[in-house]
Amino acid sequence: MEPLSSLSGRQRAAVSALAAAAEAADGVAPLNEEARLQLGREDALHWLATEGDTVVGYAQWQPTNATAQLFVHPGHRRAGHGTSLHTALVADVAEPALWAFGDLHAAQRFAASRDLVPARGLHIMERAIGDAPGRPVPDGVTLRPFTDADTDAFLAVNAAAFADHPEQGHFSADDLANRRAEDWWDPAGLILAEDAEGVVGFHWTKRHPGNTGEVYVLGVHPRGAGRGLGGILLDAGLAHLAGTGATRVILYVDAVNAPAVALYERSGFAVFHTDTLYRPATRD
């Protein structure tokens, strides 16, 4: 099984249909947003498992994030396709890390069979959106929506706020442009906090179909630490989502990011599942 540097339109459609079938069976999407965007770009490697002309399994390697994603159609599992995809992946990528979204029992068994161990947890938290008043904005700080002129300032604050984050820390102008091309993009939903020195924080919200909104990214520049801006921006974003008709909100946060988890718990969020990144077990 050879890797592909890009997918044809037919292949992209087949993988999308495959992902929809897996999500319907498992209750969790097998690909994250970045992986879905990579289906139409040339920044990743792709492997397709087939039976005849039918795509029954898929794997993707993202060099930028140094992680992989792999899944098999629910009607074609336990037939060796997952093992074949992983074998092909490790033939081209040394010791790849592999995401398991929802960390389902089947994924845990597969990881154990391939000598993979948990290395990172990503909590998905949720809460209802109420009508509680937002925390007061301190003097000298204003909140406003994003404009095109804010691109460089936004990217600089994001880079500073997530300097140690394995994915968000290298979010680029191209990444921003790709998100702005998505149907859900709304500049009013990217709320900036600005002080006398410029943009100091932001809350980027995302509206999903139905009644769900998302705390897509919330970041504060280190120079703004200790001023309560995280909570203020969180409240502003929740108010914006409520104004769009959302009644439920979700977010993703690294399990080891104790300050962020604590902020969200104080704000009424609770974990409803955790995605797990598996890595090859180290040997002494």
TrEMBL record:
Acetyl-CoA 1 binds at residues 70-72. One of its GO terms (biological process) is mycothiol biosynthetic process. 1D-myo-inositol 2-(L-cysteinylamino)-2-deoxy-alpha-D-glucopyranoside binds at residues 33, 167, 206, 214, 252. Keywords: Acyltransferase, Repeat, Transferase. It comes from the Bacteria. Its EC number is 2.3.1.189. It catalyses: 1D-myo-inositol 2-(L-cysteinylamino)-2-deoxy-alpha-D-glucopyranoside + acetyl-CoA = mycothiol + CoA + H(+). Acetyl-CoA 2 binds at residues 218-220. It holds the Pfam family Acetyltransf_1. InterPro entries: Acyl_CoA_acyltransferase (IPR016181), Bact_Acetyltransf (IPR050832), GNAT_dom (IPR000182), Mycothiol_AcTrfase (IPR017813). Residues 2-144, 141-284 form the N-acetyltransferase domain. GO terms for molecular function: mycothiol synthase activity. Transmembrane segments: none annotated. The keyword Transferase applies. Belongs to the acetyltransferase family. MshD subfamily. Catalyzes the transfer of acetyl from acetyl-CoA to desacetylmycothiol (Cys-GlcN-Ins) to form mycothiol. Monomer. PANTHER family: AMINOALKYLPHOSPHONATE N-ACETYLTRANSFERASE-RELATED-RELATED. This is Mycothiol acetyltransferase. The gene is mshD.
